[in-house]
Design goal:
Elements (H helix, E strand, L loop, with lengths): L1 H4 L7 E9 L5 E9 L6 H6 L15 H11 L3 E4 L9 E7 L10
């Protein structure tokens, strides 16, 4: 919803998913949400998850704050991509699918 509200009158939102394993053997799913807007500046990407921060003239600036809290409660991560001038914005949600594999004691 945030991507739709923050962009031009005819916004486009693309969602990609992928799965991988980290160096400890835990499986993760990554959900990337990309919109057709102007993206995030370095400052905006850093401040966006803070409560009441917004660059729009509508909304309270709580959407990404609440989203981040929910994701972190499930041991996940929210990453807001820093991009160059004129590039689309990308937000990545990463959630664990499994615990790391235990190494047998020797």
């Amino acid at each position: 919803m945030n991507a739709l509200q923050a962009n031009s009158p005819a916004p486009k939102v693309k969602v990609n998913t992928r799965q991988d394993a980290d160096s400890l053997g835990a499986s993760w799913v990554h959900i990337e949400v990309q919109d057709s807007g102007t993206g995030f500046t370095s400052e905006t990407s850093r401040k966006a998850p803070e409560p009441f921060f917004t660059t729009r003239n509508v909304g309270l600036g709580l959407g990404l704050t609440v989203t981040r809290k929910i994701i972190e409660t499930h041991h996940g991560r929210l990453e807001i991509g820093r991009n160059g001038e004129g590039e689309c914005g990308v937000v990545t949600i990463s959630l664990p699918l499994s615990e790391p594999k235990e190494t047998p004691a020797v």
